[in-house]
Amino acid sequence: AQSVSQHNHHVILSEAASLELGCNYSYGGTVNLFWYVQYPGQHLQLLLKYFSGDPLVKGIKGFEAEFIKSKFSFNLRKPSVQWSDTAEYFCAVMPTGANNLFFGTGTRLTVIP
Amino acid sequence: ETGVTQSPTHLIKTRGQQVTLRCSSQSGHNTVSWYQQALGQGPQFIFQYYREEENGRGNFPPRFSGLQFPNYSSELNVNALELDDSALYLCASRTGTDSYEQYFGPGTRLTVT
After folding, report:
1. What is the pLDDT of residues A19-67, one digit of tens each?
2. Exposure of B93 by Cβ count < 10 A (0-12 exposed, 13-18 middle, 19+ buried)?
3. Looking at CA atoms only, how far is residue B78 from chain A in angstroms?
């Protein structure tokens, strides 16, 4: 069965620190990969996506992610976090041809001013 | 904002009752999916509707049912509510079943007492 693992449940950083959130998935075929963010009280928003091509993708608000096929990973990074990045971050996978997203359990990021 | 709207925002029901949640998809989107997000978890796929037909379902019992209307809006119905049905219910729409990018609504928070 497909699964998505986010090993960091809660990450606390000071402003200007660098961020890396891990995401691993288990699926043998072609996948489409996503990171969503859920700010407090707001709906899920797409941060970035990977369908094909350059494995390093850039998203909104300075976020980027790297797809490493051999490691089944799609880690999210940001060089310098801001207080406004405090939110819940979800990694999601949609296998090619599938109807739905498979989400990880999420990582709560708290940025301390 | 994604253009996907959901109603109501919050709902409190008693165990055994029935509930109907509503979703209006983004303009031009004919495919609607429903997800359940329990507290502290990632969203889990319930089912998807495409052109008024269910065309994909997750691991949810038959008491979870849905409809899609000609204008592509959708309803999620849950019968015989259980305490574990308490969750945030998310609707997501996309332009078609061959599009991988989904746009989420703000969700309906259901509490079952």
Report:
1. 999 999 998 788 999 999 999 888 899 999 999 999 999 999 999 999 9
2. buried
3. 20
